[in-house]
């Protein structure tokens, strides 16, 4: 047990050291973003122009809210941002937030009620499950969330809409890419600079949802 604690303590210290010296963490504090993840979305948006004034966005797995902050700022007063997370999130101006588990039908129904028949231009999803440390089950739970996000996007995006979703490379990755190709005209990979090099996370961008 002590050996396990020592390893955990060592990895926690390494993370803390990395976090304290992370330029994106400092930049986020300076720019008023709640997390360094804001710069992942900003960089991807700079390249792909997903969020413009008037864009209607759903942010799945939104807490602590940095992607919602970016989306609300870029979409402006003419746009709308709908956010959902199992964790609480401090209010973000211009964002309608629901706290609940995305895997539950009742929570999904609440989000659909909030949309009130609107079709979305964009779904963004930075969700990840609480990691147990068991790689196989963590990967499976992660892709279950991704599949739900894809299903939500397929049902609520307007034709031509886009999905940006975080995935972890490994088991299930190729199958998920294939599933996205059935919904979108193009599927592209994005690995923003703000993603830590050692992380297996990457982002898949489904462009131009196919029409009915």
Automatic annotation (TrEMBL):
Its primary localisation, in coarse terms, equals: cytoplasm
One Pfam family in the UniProt entry: FtsJ
Looking at the keywords, is S-adenosyl-L-methionine present? yes
Q: Which family does it belong to?
A: Belongs to the class I-like SAM-binding methyltransferase superfamily. RNA methyltransferase RlmE family.
According to its UniProt record, where is this protein located? Cytoplasm
Q: Which reaction does it catalyse?
A: uridine(2552) in 23S rRNA + S-adenosyl-L-methionine = 2'-O-methyluridine(2552) in 23S rRNA + S-adenosyl-L-homocysteine + H(+)
Question: What EC identifiers does the entry list?
Answer: 2.1.1.166
List the active-site residues. Answer: 166
Descriptive protein name = Ribosomal RNA large subunit methyltransferase E
Residues bound to S-adenosyl-L-methionine: 65, 67, 85, 101, 126
* Claim: Mitochondrion is one of the keywords in the record: no
Among PANTHER family, the record links this protein to: RIBOSOMAL RNA METHYLTRANSFERASE, RRNA METHYLTRANSFERASE 2, MITOCHONDRIAL
**Ribosomal RNA methyltransferase FtsJ domain: residues covered:** 33-209
Q: Which GO terms describe its cellular component?
A: cytoplasm
**HAMAP family in the record:** RNA_methyltr_E
- Annotated Gene Ontology MF terms? rRNA (uridine-2'-O-)-methyltransferase activity
Job description of the protein: Specifically methylates the uridine in position 2552 of 23S rRNA at the 2'-O position of the ribose in the fully assembled 50S ribosomal subunit.
Q: What class of enzyme is it?
A: transferase
Q: Which keywords are on file for this protein? A: Cytoplasm, Methyltransferase, rRNA processing, S-adenosyl-L-methionine, Transferase
Source organism's superkingdom?
Answer: Bacteria
InterPro entries referenced in this protein's UniProt entry, alphabetically: RNA_methyltr_RlmE, RNA_MeTrfase_FtsJ_dom, rRNA-MeTfrase_E, SAM-dependent_MTases_sf
């Amino acid at each position: 047990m002590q050996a396990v604690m020592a390893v955990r303590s060592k990895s926690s210290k390494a993370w803390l050291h990395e976090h304290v010296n992370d330029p994106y963490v400092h930049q986020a504090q300076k720019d008023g973003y709640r997390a360094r993840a804001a710069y992942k979305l900003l960089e991807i948006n700079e390249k792909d122009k997903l969020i413009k004034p008037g864009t209607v966005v759903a942010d799945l797995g939104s807490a602590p809210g940095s992607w919602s902050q970016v989306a609300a700022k870029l979409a402006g007063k003419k746009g709308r941002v709908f956010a959902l997370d199992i964790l609480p999130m401090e209010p973000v101006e211009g964002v309608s937030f629901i706290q609940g588990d995305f895997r539950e039908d009742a929570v999904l129904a609440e989000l659909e009620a909030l949309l009130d028949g609107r079709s979305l231009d964009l779904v963004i999803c930075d969700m990840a499950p609480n990691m147990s440390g068991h790689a196989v089950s963590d990967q499976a739970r992660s892709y279950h969330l991704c599949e739900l996000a894809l299903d939500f996007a397929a049902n609520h995006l307007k034709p031509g809409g886009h999905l940006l979703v975080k995935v972890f490379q490994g088991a299930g990755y190729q199958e998920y890419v294939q599933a996205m190709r059935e919904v979108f005209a193009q599927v592209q990979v994005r690995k923003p600079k703000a993603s830590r090099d050692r992380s297996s996370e990457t982002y898949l961008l489904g462009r131009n949802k196919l029409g009915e």
